[in-house]
Amino acid sequence: MLFIELLKTSWQSLRVNPKRSFLTMIGIVIGIAAVITIIALGNGVKAKILKELQATNTGKQTTEINYYPNDSTAATQGFSENDLEQIRSNFSATLSAVKFKRDTKNISNTVTMGNDNRTATLSLVKGANQHYDISTGHNITKSDNEVNNQVALLNKKLAIKEYGTEENALGSALSVGDNTYKIVGIFTKASDDYNVDFLLPQKTYLYSTAAQNGSTIKLTFNKGVKVSNASKKIVSFLKKNGSSRKAGSYEYTDMGSLLSGISKVISSLTYFISAIAGISLFIAGIGVMNMMYISVSERTQEIGIRLAVGASGRSIMLQFLLEAIMLTVFGGLLGFLIGWGTAALISLALPFKAIVTFGSFLLAFGVSSLVGIVFGLLPAKQAANKNLIDILR
Amino acid sequence: MIDIKNVNKFYGQGDSSFHVLHDINLSISEGEFVSIMGQSGSGKSTLINIIGFLDDEFKGEYFYYNHPIHEYTRTQFSKLRNQNVGFVFQNFKLINTLTVADNVGLPLLYAGEKRKAIKEQVKDVLEAVGLPDASEKKPTNLSGGQQQRVSIARAIVTNPQFLIADEPTGALDSKTSREIMTLFKELNQKNKTTIIMVTHDEKVALQSERIIQILDGRILSDKKVNA
Fold it and tell me: So what's the ipTM on this one?
């Protein structure tokens, strides 16, 4: 018998008893749906973490090295341009970029206002934004930032404390590093990162020489570099050669090992739930086997007739095996769709998307076929080995 | 065509084994219409199971067109059955979940043909047995006589060398029996199909050409029917 005709024959037989076929499938559906759901969510978490921890869009990994001075009032920020040059020349094979990590918000710096030196907090702006209001004077404009105008905004509370009125503060000078800024406006009602003492134009501030140092540098690695090892080497290099090595310590967060740690947790969670689903699939498989045995004994006459008109034992076996496989594969595909839907639904309430890959599809397909073969084989063999004479008598 | 030499058949094994057929010798040629008669338990069904390649566990020799069937494997038996013999059973043996057309086409499917390709053949053979409109019905919706016609259609659809009919009229009333016998005679005379029929109805047997009497597993008599 042609294989395609065998397939149709099996399909016909399953449709004779749709309710029973459907009920037999349910176990497989639930098992596969559970596996697909957890794998889709696991993939989603992994992708999300990768995206969060990797700064560059090209998939290159980055590490930040921080400098912590022993004396918190020390003037040095830790890294100089010279340090960066040394790192660049010594680690050119592994690194694609070395930069200062520029803080633009909540920077602590020493400023001179009037005749007092004081430590103040400042944030950088590129122009007006909605996080604060101007109560007196005028705002920093986009063009102020573009052309490096040395202008600044002063917090209303500080203005009243230092100058008595807001108006008095306007026009006074503020020195940050080597630059002197003119206070052009007083700001109020600032929120979050903007609730600081001063607001300065970002480009103007970063352009000044005082900013040519930093407490944090950002390393971007070439693809394929083992980030943990490379970071460790660079840190120990800095401990020997860094410009401020005697006044503080260099530390870095190992994103790579953090990442692989989280991945491991998710993987083992996936294995755990897969194992539970595996048990459910096993039980479902036994259900299929049971149903096939019942089917074989119910359809003894049919088997006899088929054998009498010339069916070989092999085609009888294949027919029943295909019935079992069809049941489990349809169950598997249904489970795949339900699992996909469930994962998508669950991810609505979570901060990441469920990701269903072609691999997950293959897994559902493969596992359900395997269950069909394993648990369909014995009943199918029994069907094929029936004694024709006993049946027909 | 069929040559059976010293065939013995036992049911069961060891001390409890039952000797059903004793040294059967039998020859049947092409085109014959043979009736096998005997009481129930006489072994006549056992004999036609052997003749029809349903039973491969017997002692002795069976030559079919001079091929030694007794040496064949089970798989070869399946093929032999499919291509050379058609069966008509007392209780029709139709698959009730399939349509009439699917039942009739079954032997052709197992011969390796496609469903689409056999539609015409199935239609022709259903017409030949007088059921041109029954193809999409289920067997359970047909009368006994109609069901027997379907099973005859299934038996002849592969154009087999011979037909085995085991009590073909056993479950039918006398009128329907006559119709079925007419159909058999037609097949025998028009298509030259060899027919081997088991019956214990004398009237039915008399319509064939040759009657073989069996008693307790031995051939009692073997004679031509006088026309």
Answer: 0.91
Q: Report yes or no on B144 lying in a domain.
A: yes
Residue B7 lies in a domain: no
B-contacting residues of A 286-305, CB under 8 Å? 301-302, 304-305
Report the candidate in A322, A288, A380 with the shortest Cα–Cα distance to residue A6.
A322
- Answer whether A67's CB lies under 8 Å from A235's CB: no
Is residue B174 exposed (0-12), middle (13-18) or buried (19+ Cβ within 10 Å)? exposed
Which residues of B lie closer than 8 Å to A, measured between beta carbons?
A: 45, 49, 54-55, 74-75, 78-79, 81-83, 87, 89, 93-95, 97-98, 102, 106-107, 109-115, 154, 158
Please state whether beta strands A179-188 and A173-176 pair in parallel, antiparallel, or not at all (unpaired): antiparallel
The single residue listed with the structure tokens 């097949």 is: B187
Encode chain A (393 residues) as per-residue pLDDT tens digits: 788 888 998 998 899 889 999 999 998 999 899 889 888 888 887 777 766 655 444 556 777 788 887 776 655 667 777 777 888 888 877 777 777 777 777 777 778 887 778 888 888 888 877 788 888 888 888 888 888 888 888 888 888 888 888 888 888 888 887 788 888 889 888 777 788 888 888 888 877 654 556 777 877 777 767 777 778 888 888 888 877 777 788 888 766 666 667 667 777 877 888 888 888 889 999 999 999 999 999 999 999 999 999 888 899 999 999 999 999 999 999 999 999 999 999 988 887 888 899 998 998 899 999 999 999 999 999 999 888 888 887
Number of domains comprising chain B: 1
Distance (Å, whole) CA B193 – CA B88:
14
Residue B10 lies in a domain: no
Yes or no, beta carbons of B81 and A309 under 8 Å apart: yes
